[in-house]
Predict the structure.
Amino acid sequence: MPEGWQPARGQTAQALNPAAVHLWLVDLEQPASFENILSVDEQARAGRFHFERDRRRYVTGRGSLRLILGRYLGVEPAQIRFEYTTYGRPLLAGLLAGSGLRFNVSHAQTVYLLGVTRNREIGVDVEAIRPLPDALDIAGRFFAPGEQAALRRVPAADKEVAFFHCWTRKEAYIKALGSGLSQPLDEFEVSFLAGDPPRLLSVRDKPAEVERWQLHAFTPRPGYVAAVIAEGQGWRPEMFWLGET
Ligand SMILES: CC(C)(COP(=O)(O)OP(=O)(O)OC[C@H]1O[C@@H](n2cnc3c(N)ncnc32)[C@H](O)[C@@H]1OP(=O)(O)O)[C@@H](O)C(=O)NCCC(=O)NCCS
């Protein structure tokens, strides 16, 4: 189990204090099988993966999502129904939609990150740090001018890590908005330099956004970076691990 994460407990809706944001880290290489709790459309999606490894990871991720949400909601994992927004975001459907439980997920390689809140919007993103020789070019296309300037000042040896910190924080924000790439990425700015507290710094024409959200960044496992943004100020992250302990 990675350092700082608690083993999964039987979470219930009551266990999710409104002042907390629960973060679940799922090991996508764990041996547990979740095949039987997936819906028909999820099983069909699983069947469309070209590589067995990707199929297995998808089943483990989606199955874990059902297992964990089922505990909060007090329902069998297989009973949960999802609906999808026009931008592809899964939401709880039917009666469960009124539960106030909100979630967002992100996956990268062997890591699946799930954020769960009560009555606050949330977005999460995890990325594996990898060589990115064109980091500055990508930043030039997607990042806000202030972010580009900050990244240029980062020493070469630290540039990739800094890039992924910026990327995950921006991605978490657009995922919390749920609007996919219809929110232009250069119209808002996040802090990401080592030593600077993670913050949404500005959003063009929407100054109230800065106070609306709290941003948190962390290293879920060595070689990865992650960010979570959720509505409101003063919430604290609580971290749970689902995998081999
Ligand atoms: C969903 C999106 C927002 C992020 O996708 P991604 O980073 O490739 O993938 P992640 O693993 O972080 O997230 C995927 C999950 O997000 C969720 N998701 C899908 N659409 C979403 C949306 N519009 N809003 C919030 N969450 C969404 C889904 O649960 C999905 O996983 P699932 O299909 O297994 O259920 C996608 O629209 C996208 O392409 N993003 C922009 C990529 C980019 O250019 N980023 C530049 C950042 S500087």
Summary: The chain has a mean pLDDT of 93. The longest strand covers residues 20-27. Residues 61, 87-90, 104-107, 125, 142, 167, 170-171, 174-175, 178, 180-181, 185 surround coenzyme A (CB under 6 Å). The longest helix spans residues 52-73.
